[in-house]
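Quick illustration for those who missed Monday's session on complexes.
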Amino acid sequence: MDRQAVTIAIDGPVAAGKGTLARRLAARYGYAYLDTGSLYRAVGAKVLRQGGDPDDAAVAAGAARSLTDRDLAAPDLRSEAVGLAASKVAAIPEVRAALLDYQRRFAAQPPDGKPGAVLDGRDIGTVVCPAAPVKLFVTASDEIRARRRHRELLDRGENASFEQVLADLRRRDAQDSARNTAPLKPAPDAHLLDTSNLDIEAAVAAAVDIVAATLKP
Ligand code: DC
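Prediction with 2'-deoxycytidine-5'-monophosphate bound:
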């Protein structure tokens, strides 16, 4: 029988550094990487493109059930507008249900026969992969996350003020934490990693220490 694939679950709020950490851990261990936020972003972007309302459950669930590779590669997925729409569609239980199987399959059978997968999002350790042997909950202060996110947007040529980015980030965190279905919260067995005072290398080193200690035979 094939060995069971190892799952590293990484959750946390907007711009805490989950994506960078997840990519680096996946590269280090030869695991596949899934940015689950991009699924919700693709649903949000699809609804906006159709001129629909991201709060409309029927429209959003229809978009989630008919997602294509083209939707997942849409050029505007990282924009602020799509991020806010993603947070709205993510509160709709039918949308979450439509995306669940894909995420679980990715974790159980990572592509290209890889021996494990790193998934990042909001509910990986609590709902998608509650049995994951390694769970990280990555945080940083609001101001530091907004500063990182603001720099990222400016680097991409998007026009945004720091105050606006901070307000959007707080709004999105509040929506993601307050929803009834799969809210943003650490799993009881998650390791908390505060990256407020860590640069990328230090954050990766801290995460590798946690993974090594947890997966130790
Ligand atoms: O990680 P991100 O900013 O790209 O995610 C976009 C939105 O998608 C986020 O505001 C909440 C939602 N999301 C979620 O509800 N569950 C996940 N596993 C991943 C993202």
